[in-house]
From TrEMBL, chain A:
UniProt keyword terms in alphabetical order: Membrane, Transmembrane, Transmembrane helix
Species of provenance: Sulfobacillus thermotolerans
PANTHER family: ABC-TYPE MULTIDRUG TRANSPORT SYSTEM, PERMEASE COMPONENT, NODULATION PROTEIN J
Transmembrane stretches, start-end: 21-42, 54-76, 97-129, 141-161, 222-244
Name of the featured protein: ABC-2 type transporter domain-containing protein
Domain of life: Bacteria
Length: 257, 314
């Protein structure tokens, strides 16, 4: 497993360095988006925006971007492998493709987060806005990320079967937006708990919001819902991917594109 | 010692027109250091069989054992002993260099660090790509890409090598280089399953052949035996000068049939396929000068054509 991690880390760096314009453009886009967030929020509301509120906006957006990336990375990776004619070699790797794509997703997030953190730090330095990152937010963030990988494995499974997933990802992203925006987080009742257990991200985002916006202790039920949901989605993703892998091996369509 | 054991493989694919039997009850084995040429027309089931042997297509029935390990029950240790270069796939990342690719695919199979680097260098030197290690795969010629793909498959020194059309689209020099590498690998003990439409290459490289038609194996045997079996008891005798009439009259008494193809060449089929009949014929031809006597020796293209068109089985 260590050798797969090393190989994927190396590959991510090689590809990022090989096409510097592509890498620089994505960093620049990120910079412009965050500049828009930092300056635009005050401009639109026509009043100085508080540091706490800005932190919530910036972190919320960064989490959103990370989730989108984690959800789509594995699916895109499968599609690209199929398109480039390397998918069959990946499927012959002894450890199993599910590990390869999970490690690849982990590396993609690391490569994605490094410039993101750098850009946010640069914005803080430029604007002078006080920005306090609460370490307690790390756990909910990791839970969100693992849930996103679970969902990402499901998308990758769909990519294994159908090969082209651009439109599927668009639909998934809209559904995720809907799921995250469900305004039930302020008054958790029985309906919320059912949804929090079933829908991806609802519980984790509510947990993240709670940690970022208040200093009140997190209700244990919220931790439980978020943890349970994360496990459910990761297991669903792994089983969905393995099921799709078995399906394409039975149908003989693994190398098709 | 058998390294690759393929037992009673069958596969049916669902299609819009109903189920299509791609492979039916295919059985063969390859020993250490042996090259099996798996031949047949397009759509006969070659690629399906090779992909089932690689674990990429799950058979409906049958088993694949690699070094005695069941591929579908113990996938990881079984595939660890196998390398494959598949036709229609690139097998390598085109946006990475040759060396980066070899190190990547080596690491994915558990070979890292200095061991991986020295193995990659050794393989690249062996195929003459030592000076192209830092070149992007997309910048290489088709022959070089194929050699690099072969190196990728060999990073872990696999016991079994699956080669699906390894010389397709290559020029003479590149094909010769791949051939010599395959020969060398077999000498070192690798069991090689080779599919190709280039029958001269198959004849040159294989120890055994298997011919598949409509998903069923119709012929299997050692290459030399099969060629011998399909060779006809027929001699071509070429005179140094045109054959005179009196000699032609004289040879009519020799048991067998004689046909004159042109003023210089006679075709002789001994009676009851008794090959010793050639000595009677030579005696009858004496003292006319003979330039050449050649016994018919079938080549693989004749065998395959005969098996596929006439349905001859052995």
């Amino acid at each position: 497993m260590r050798s797969i991690v090393q190989a994927e880390w190396r590959r991510s760096l090689i590809l990022a360095a090989r096409y510097p314009m592509e890498t620089l453009s994505s960093i620049l886009t990120m910079f412009l988006v965050f500049a828009g967030l930092f300056y635009g929020a005050s401009y639109i509301t026509d009043s100085p925006i508080g540091a706490g509120r800005l932190a919530t906006i910036v972190v919320g957006y960064a989490v959103w971007m990370t989730m989108m990336s984690a959800t789509g990375d594995m699916g895109w990776s499968v599609q690209n492998e199929a398109q480039n004619g390397t998918l069959e070699q990946v499927m012959m790797v002894p450890r199993g493709a599910v590990w390869v794509f999970l490690v690849r997703a982990l590396m993609a997030i690391v490569v994605f987060l490094i410039p993101l953190v750098m850009v946010v730090c640069a914005m803080i330095a430029l604007t002078g806005v006080g920005f306090v990152w609460r370490l307690e937010a790390l756990e909910p963030f990791l839970m969100t990320l693992i849930t996103a990988w679970g969902l990402g494995l499901l998308v990758a499974g769909i990519a294994l079967i159908f090969k082209r997933i651009g439109q599927v990802l668009n639909i998934v992203q809209f559904l995720l937006l809907f799921v995250i925006m469900i305004p039930l987080g302020h008054d958790p009742g029985w309906l919320w708990h059912i949804l929090a257990v079933l829908l991806p991200f609802t519980a984790q985002v509510a947990l993240l919001r709670h940690v970022l916006q208040t200093t009140a202790p997190v209700p244990p039920s919220l931790w439980l819902s978020a943890g349970f949901n994360m496990i459910i989605w990761m297991l669903t993703g792994v089983m969905g991917f393995i099921g799709a892998e078995r399906f394409v091996r039975r149908r003989g369509t693994l190398g098709h594109y | 010692m058998v390294i690759l054991d393929v037992l009673n493989l069958s596969k049916t694919f669902p299609t819009r027109m109903g189920p299509r039997r791609a492979v039916q009850d295919v059985t063969f084995s390859i020993a250490r250091g042996e090259v099996l040429a798996f031949l047949g027309p397009n759509g006969a089931g070659k690629t399906t069989t090779i992909k089932m042997s690689a674990g990429l297509i799950r058979p409906d029935a049958g088993k694949v054992r690699i070094g005695g390990i069941d591929l579908w029950q113990h996938h990881d240790p079984a595939v660890q002993q196998m390398g494959a270069v598949l036709e229609g796939s690139r097998n390598l990342y085109w946006r990475m260099t040759v060396m980066e690719n070899l190190l990547y695919w080596g690491a994915m199979r558990g070979i890292t660090g200095k061991a991986a680097k020295s193995r990659a260098e050794e393989l690249l030197d062996r195929v003459g790509l030592g000076d192209r290690a830092r070149s992007l795969v997309q910048s290489l010629s088709r022959g070089m890409q194929q050699k690099a793909a072969l190196c990728q498959a060999l990073m872990t020194s696999p016991q079994v090598l699956l080669l699906d059309e390894p010389t397709l689209g290559l020029d003479y020099e590149a094909a010769a280089s791949i051939k010599s590498l395959v020969r060398e690998l077999a000498q070192q003990g690798t069991a090689i399953l080779l599919t190709t439409h280039q029958l001269d290459i198959a004849q040159e490289l294989s120890d055994r052949i298997a011919i598949i038609r409509q998903g069923q194996l119709v012929l299997q045997g050692t290459t030399s035996e099969v060629l011998q079996q399909y060779s006809q008891p027929l001699f071509a005798i070429e005179g140094a000068e045109p054959w005179p009439l009196e000699i032609l009259e004289r040879v009519r008494g020799v048991p067998g049939s004689i046909q004159m193809i042109d003023p210089l060449t006679l075709l002789f089929v001994p009676e009851a396929a008794d090959m010793a009949g050639i000595y009677d014929l030579i005696a009858a031809l004496t003292p006319h000068p003979i330039a050449r006597i050649q016994r018919h020796q079938a080549d693989l293209s004749e065998v395959v054509q005969k098996v596929l068109t006439e349905g001859v089985t052995a």
